Amino acid sequence: MKETHNSKDTSDMLRRFCLYGFVKNQKYFEPFLYLALLDKLSFAGVGMLIGFRELCVIVMEVPSGAVADVLGRRRAMIISHACYIAAFVTFALAGAAWQLYAAMFLFSIGEAFRTGTHKAMIFAWLAGEGRGDEKTSIYGQTRSWSQLGSAMSIAIGATLVFVTQRYDIVFLLSTVPYTVNIVNFLTYPRDLDGAQTAGVKPGRMLQTMVRAVRQALGNRPLRRALAEAMTFNGLHKSSKEWLGPLLRVVALQIPLFVFLTDRRREAILVGGVYIVLYFLSSYASRHAGLVVRRAGSVRRAGRWLWWINLATFLLLAAGILAGFMAIAIVALVAMAVVQNFWRPIIVGRVAQYADESQTATILSIESQSKTLFTALAAPLLGWTIGMMSEEMRFLPLAILGIVITVIMLATDKNNDGLHGR
């Protein structure tokens, strides 16, 4: 009877983790964020705003991981979602540049307290269940539900933009699911908070951070994994967010739905492409474990994906240079799918090398490395994209991706210390 109860508890907990991912990705504004910003700012201005967001995350992210490890991970997630809700409302109401910066600041607090923390809860639960070797497959399942949630949110968001021809409504509606997730966190068992102390002790949090940074720098396999996470994830994040503006260019060029307003044509094309992207991404996340099994090791699987990543950036460059924007769109969608094979693999690899007591902090460092890359790349890409002709506008994305990917492949010397594990 006890075994059945445990089995029921296990399935219930997995459902809550998957619910979190599904609801967390109900960001109805996501594919339209850059389009909304470009209505108020230049390309360079958008790049600076995104760089500001990432710098704010860098400042707060590792301390937030330490706060989660010391004070409790559930509280950190609730703080995160409360800041997201405030950010969404501010975005909807913003009319001046400083208000957009205020919204991005609130959004960055939400990002900082979220990244690494929920993954640490999943991994702590797996360790408690004696299923630590299932990190990649279980995280892949939860991420799969996240991508399904994104597909649904895109359909809802695109419909709202099509009907209202406004962007503010998609920001406001995003507050509802984030409120639902706060309720979801309240149902998580207390033991997922991790080892914590009563009250805020800055010395303890500083000690946690110093130990985690020392571990990240001193452990060669972990250091390499973090470097790969920074560049691969940073390239994806820097590139994917320009898909919306690229789709806007295509929407205004192709002779389809010409009887509709420009914004409605954008809604149809952006919504359609993003729905396909997230369904493919969901499949990729769910089958990340299969890639590892086929490759024979997490390290070899990662190398396969680096080569595929290079191929997609070359395809992006070819599409732009040839003037076939449809090929460029296919390349960006392919990058997103590859990244969703990659993400569960690299997260499991980083967690494999980290001490369980510091998992949230180490995973926040992993996320912070991606954030640092994006903070540096976003203003540069925004400025260079704005300087290019309309036909070559998105070529800097391809050039950056090709250069970084070649460097990472050339410096891969099998120094994980685990002989290919």
Characterization of this structure:
- The structure is a single chain.
- With 421 residues, the chain is mainly α.
- It has a single domain (10-188, 203-410), classed as MFS general substrate transporter like domains (Growth Hormone, Chain: A), CATH 1.20.1250.20.
- 80% of the residues lie in helices and 0% in strands.
- The chain contains 18 helices and no strands.
- It has helices at 2-24, 33-38, 43-71, 73-93, 97-114, 117-128, 135-164, 168-173, 175-186, 202-218, 220-240, 243-253, 262-286, 288-295, 298-322, 325-353, 359-387, 395-410.
- Helix 1 (2-24) packs parallel to helix 7 (135-164) and helix 13 packs parallel to helix 16 (325-353).
